[in-house]
Amino acid sequence: MIGEIDLYGVFIPSLLVLMLGALAVTGCLRFVLMRLGVYKLVWHRSLFNFALYVIVLGGTVALTRGLHP
């Protein structure tokens, strides 16, 4: 994983970009899970959403880390 991304002279941490991407993916997953009725089986919806975000973020970081040797 590279340290920063240069966007017209503004350095943006790569983790911020990964976090925003993971947030978008998590939002889509939450919508699908809500439509499927999975949240009826979940005890604490906020904790479940946070854990889902952490899992997606970890997967995103692992995928991008594999791309850069």
Overview of this protein structure:
The chain has a two-stranded antiparallel ribbon. The longest helix is centred in the middle third of the chain and has 23 residues, at 14-36. It has one domain. The protein contains 2 helices and 2 strands, in the order ββαα. The mean pLDDT is 91. It is mainly alpha-helical and 69 residues long. β1 and β2 form a beta hairpin. The protein has helices at 14-36, 45-67; strands at residues 4-7, 10-13.
Spans where pLDDT lies below 50 across 5 or more residues: none
Tally of individual helices = 2
Broad shape:
elongated
The neighbouring-strand order within the major sheet is 1-2
Mean pLDDT: 91
The helical percent reads: 55-70%
Secondary-structure-based class equals: mainly alpha
H/E topology pattern:
EEHH
Radius of gyration in whole Å, from Cα? Answer: 15 Å
| Fraction in beta strands | 5-15%
Biggest beta-sheet profile: 2 strands, antiparallel
Distance between the termini: 9 Å
Query: How many runs of DSSP E, i.e. beta strands?
Result: 2
Quickly list its features.
mainly alpha, two-stranded antiparallel ribbon, single chain, 2 strands, 69 residues, 2 helices
How is this structure best summarized?
With 69 residues, this protein is mostly helical.
Q: Any chance you could write out the topology, listing elements then pairs?
A:
Elements: E1 4-7, E2 10-13, H1 14-36, H2 45-67
Antiparallel strand pairs: 1-2
Helix pairs in contact: 1-2
